[in-house]
Amino acid sequence: MRIESTRFGTLDIDAERIIGFPSGLIGFPEEREFVLVHHGHSGSIAWLQSTKTAALALPVVGAHEFSPVYPDVPLSDAAKRAGLSGSPDDMTALVVLCANPGMPSTVNLAAPIIVDAAKWTGAQVILEGTRFTTREAFLTPERPAQNEAVGG
């Protein structure tokens, strides 16, 4: 399958690698199909590219980058509320990265995107009872604090 992307140009993707979001994403309820694009030299950052809207690509980071402190509430509860019924072993969580020029990079740890890797379905959820916010500093053990934009 071919999709057009403003950021990456024309992408040839395996249709079986499309992640379906029955309810869309927060702020994008009509966007229901995305592909995960690994781009550049970063092993940590990828992009959720819409299959429908060429200009819509969200930078994401695997939640495992924040272990052992994240998440602080069970993701399985949020996944069930979102209608994801797969095995917890098949679930992975991504968080949206915000990297504005001249500002510290932040991640949205209050509303992760949970993907059932076995069924290729997902949902963005709001974690109930978490201490995290939508604008947490993008710090990992391998990444010290810095004032530079990521991506481009």
Q: How helical, in percent, are the residues? A: under 10%
CATH class: Mainly Beta
Q: What characteristic shape results from the CA principal axes?
A: globular
Query: Roughly how many Å is the radius of gyration?
Result: 15 Å
Strand count = 11
Report the CATH architecture.
Roll
What's the number of structural domains? 1
- What is the H level of CATH, i.e. the homologous superfamily? BH3618-like
Quote the distance from N terminus to C terminus: 26 Å
CATH fold naming: BH3618-like
Architecture overview:
The chain is mainly beta. The chain has a single domain (2-137), classed as BH3618-like (Roll), CATH 2.30.290. It is 5% helix and 32% strand. It is built from 1 helix and 11 strands. The protein has one helix spanning 75-81, and strands spanning 2-5, 9-12, 19-20, 33-38, 45-50, 57-62, 91-98, 106-107, 113-116, 121-124, 136-137. Strands 3, 4, 5, 6, 7, 8, 9, 10 and 11 form a 9-stranded antiparallel beta sheet that branches. A hairpin with a 7-residue loop joins strand 7 (91-98) and strand 8 (106-107). The longest helix is centred in the middle third of the chain and has 7 residues, at 75-81. The chain is globular and about 40 Å long. Residues 143-152 have low confidence and may be disordered.
